[in-house]
Each structure stands twice: as C-alpha cells, then as structure tokens.
C-alpha cells in the first residue's frame, strides 16, 4: 500500500511513523520548507501520549519535555480557587507530557528521516485531490518548487490520500469547498512565550485565570523555565495594536505587575479561535484527520491531542486493510467514530473550558460550574479523582476491534455508535 499524507505537521508526521511501523509506504507532501515553528500546542494528554508511544517517539519527547505537576484555577489577583494535584498522573506510563510544538516537530522529523518507508517532500503545495474509481486509486496534484521560485505541477497516485494539512486544509476545501460547520468565537487568543518566573509568585505548572477580560492560561513549557501565557483580546485589534497593548496586558494581569524589562518575551502569536468539524472525514479514497478535519479553541489542550488520537485510529484502519484483516468499510467507521468523538466530547468539553475562564464568576465557580465542583471534590475523594483521571481517555477508540476474526468468516464487525 502507498499512502500520500498531505501536511508534514505533527499529525502528518505521526501518521507516517505509525504507517511505517505497519510496513506501509508513505509520501508526505508539505508546502513549507521545513517544520512549523509558531507557538501553538505544548500539552499532550494521556490519550495522545499512547499514540506517540506507538509511533516510537515518546522516549525522545520525554527527554526534551517535562511532565507537569499541579493544575490550578485562580482569580486574577492570583488567589487559588481550586486545583488538581499532579494533573499529569506521573505514576501513569501515559502521563501528560509538555513539549512546545516546534520542538515536537524536530523530534518527529528526525524519526521520519530514519524510516526507509517515509519520504518527506517540502515545497510541495497540494492544489487538488480526488479518487479514480476506475483504477481504485487516490490522486493528488501539487505545485512543486522553491518558495518564490519557478513552480511546476506534479501528479501523484496512491492507494489513499490523508489530509493532515491543518486548519486551512486544501484537501478539505477540495472535498467540501467552504463548508466547515461550526462557529468562530468573538475573541482572539494571543499566545506568548516568555521567560518570567511565575513559579516565584506561587503559580503552579498549569494555571487558568478566570476573569471576563483578563482571562488567561499560564503554563511552564520547557525545563529551562519558558512559560506560555495565552490571553484573550478584542477581535478588533490588529497585530500592531496587539503588540502595543501586550506590555499593558502583562502589567495588569500577571503577578508582580511586570514591566517589559522584567521579562524576556520570545514570541507573540494571535489566533482566531473556532469550533468546527468537517461534514465527513472520508470521501472515496481521501481521508481527513486532525486540524484539517476539526478545530477547537486551545483551552484544555484538546486540539492536537484529538488530532493525534485521530491518526492513531486511522493508522489502525489502514494497517487492517494492508494486512487483509479489514475491508474498505473500516474507513467509513473511522469517519463515523472520530466525528462522533468530536461532537460528543471534544467540542462540548473544549467549549466549556473556554467559557469557564472567560465567562464564569470566579467567586461562585466551585458550586456553579460542574467541572470545577468535581475538581474540588476530587481533592478529598479518591473515587472522584479516579473518574477525573479516566476522563482523559474519553476520546480513545480501538479500531482493531473491527478487524476480521478468523471465526467470523471474513465479516467485519460493525461499529455500535
Ligand atoms: C495558541 C494555541 C495553543 C495550542 N495548544 C495546544 C495544546 O497545548 N495541546 C494540543 O493538543 N493542541 C493545542 N493547540 C492546537 C494544535 O496546535 C493544533 O491542533 C495542531 O498544531 C494541528 O496539527 P496538524 O498537524 O493537524 O496541523 P498543522 O500543525 O497546522 O500542520 C499542517 C501542515 O500542513 C501543511 N500544509 C498546509 N496546506 C498545505 C497544502 N496545500 N499542501 C501541502 N501542505 C500543506 C503546513 O505547511 C503544515 O506543515 C493549540 C493551538 C493554538 C493556536
């Protein structure tokens, strides 16, 4: 089998590694000249850690990254509302792990480059994709060339095309045009990376500050003390206005009311935030996964976590096909199950995470907000804490259960949704 993965972002690279382990040949096509270095994901929940372990990269991620300690919700004056001790479950082999996306990309690419079954082609912008029913093949047309240089079109053929090309996916647009149902929040999130010792002010490794205007998330993201501070801004502000406003925002909302000389700011990245899911994750021989298939706001870190769980499932489906243990219909099951997970879990949970920090009264949050009430209870009741820990796996799904069993005479078990 030969699979073309569009997009060598984290989801595409992990999918290629999983397919290589199943002896499936993969060609990765990416429009950029190397891995993306924007400040985005950093926290990967246990469900994603299981996939990274299967891809054979967890040891290197743990070598470069960190396992966070406590997670706390606070008022804007820093007072603790409630929290989860050792949120990562450090006793668990799937413990949540933190590594900024740019560093994750480097680790993943190094592993891909060692695999003889993986070819990565940069400067290759996919324009359109489709299925040739007659031949039983997928195809891709891409513009190939160096940025700013001469470009020429090239046609690729394969057994399956997997669109892992991010939020503005050209693969998704080819299949559905601008049909990407959902909503865009009336807020922009400014993701900053900064050296400022928030732990000296009593902050824990992950902090959510609840406030109608100055809500933010502050988390330690590297071993050498780099912090991610992601805060909300009015959508009307341009990038220039965001940059001008940033020192005032920091001084007003961070503990110690720091002025520019008190911290070292590395990045400022504005992002519009969305809750959107594609109408289907499968059309013929073309599949969608991760941000190409669905989006959610970053509070709670469900974006790439959900994307990695997608590619973990998709790899199991393609491996089943390669081994003759599954029929083509397993890919329809992939579409149905992963879309349902987004609608039933990722969308409602990530939406509540955002509303909890931006539209909840911090004085009554424990009591009125069901999740924070549970978090508070978990600090006193181990059974509730176990439920909380188990909820980290709610988006997982084992697609190998649909592989044919010899006793079933070749009939695939169908999904019960
Ligand atoms: C501020 C912020 C914080 C976040 N924090 C977290 C977090 O802590 N945990 C978490 O799980 N998630 C988080 N997320 C979400 C996470 O960053 C994304 O879900 C993740 O990066 C998506 O990965 P991807 O591989 O699907 O897409 P991308 O990372 O967007 O990669 C897509 C790739 O496709 C390529 N591409 C695009 N178009 C084409 C084309 N036409 N042809 C060829 N190649 C193309 C691009 O060059 C790119 O390399 C956060 C997001 C933001 C904005």
Automatic annotation (TrEMBL):
Keywords tagged on the record: FAD, Flavoprotein, Monooxygenase, Oxidoreductase
Cofactors that this protein relies on: FAD
GO molecular function per UniProt: FAD binding; oxidoreductase activity, acting on paired donors, with incorporation or reduction of molecular oxygen, NAD(P)H as one donor, and incorporation of one atom of oxygen
UniProt KW Oxidoreductase keyword: yes
Gene3D superfamilies: 3.30.70.2450, FAD/NAD(P)-binding domain
One Pfam family this sequence matches: FAD_binding_3
Domain of life: Eukaryota
Domain FAD-binding: 2-345
Entry protein name: Related to monooxygenase
Upper taxonomic lineage: Eukaryota, Fungi, Dikarya, Ascomycota, Pezizomycotina
């Amino acid at each position: 089998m030969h699979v073309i993965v569009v997009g060598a972002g984290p989801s595409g690279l992990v999918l290629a590694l999983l397919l290589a382990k199943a002896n499936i040949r993969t060609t990765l096509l990416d429009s950029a000249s190397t891995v993306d270095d924007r400040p985005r994901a950093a926290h990967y929940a246990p469900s994603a850690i299981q996939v990274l372990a299967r891809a054979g990269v967890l040891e290197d991620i743990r070598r470069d990254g960190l396992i966070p300690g406590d997670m706390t919700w606070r008022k804007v004056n820093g007072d603790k509302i409630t929290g989860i001790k050792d949120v990562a479950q450090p006793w668990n082999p799937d413990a949540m792990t933190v590594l900024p996306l740019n560093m994750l990309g480097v680790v993943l690419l190094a592993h891909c480059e060692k695999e003889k079954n993986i070819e990565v082609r940069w400067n290759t912008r996919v324009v359109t994709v489709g299925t040739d029913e007659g031949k039983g093949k997928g195809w891709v047309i891409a513009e190939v060339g160096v940025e700013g240089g001469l470009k020429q079109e090239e046609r690729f053929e394969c057994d399956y095309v997997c669109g892992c090309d991010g939020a503005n996916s050209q693969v998704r647009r080819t299949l559905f045009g601008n049909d990407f149902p959902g909503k865009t929040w009336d807020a922009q999130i400014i993701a900053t990376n900064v050296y400022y010792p928030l732990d000296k002010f009593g902050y824990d490794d992950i902090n959510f500050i609840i406030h109608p205007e100055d809500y933010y998330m502050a988390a330690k993201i590297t071993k050498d003390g780099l912090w991610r501070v992601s805060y909300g801004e009015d959508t009307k502000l341009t990038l220039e206005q965001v940059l001008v406003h940033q020192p005032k925002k920091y001084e007003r909302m961070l503990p110690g009311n720091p002025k520019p000389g008190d911290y070292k700011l590395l990045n400022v990245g504005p992002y519009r935030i969305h809750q959107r899911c594609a109408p289907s994750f499968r059309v013929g021989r073309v599949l969608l996964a991760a941000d190409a298939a669905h989006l959610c706001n970053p509070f709670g870190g469900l974006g790439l976590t959900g994307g990695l769980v997608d590619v973990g499932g998709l790899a199991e489906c393609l491996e089943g096909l390669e081994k003759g243990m599954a029929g083509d219909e397993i890919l329809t099951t992939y579409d149905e199950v992963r879309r349902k997970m987004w609608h039933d879990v990722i969308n409602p949970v990530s939406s509540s995470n955002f509303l909890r920090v931006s539209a909840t009264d911090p004085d009554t949050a424990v009591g009125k907000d069901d999740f924070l009430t549970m978090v508070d209870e978990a600090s006193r009741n181990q059974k509730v804490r176990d439920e909380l820990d188990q909820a980290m796996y709610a988006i997982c799904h084992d697609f190998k259960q649909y592989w044919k069993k010899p006793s079933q005479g070749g009939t695939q078990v169908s999904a019960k949704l």
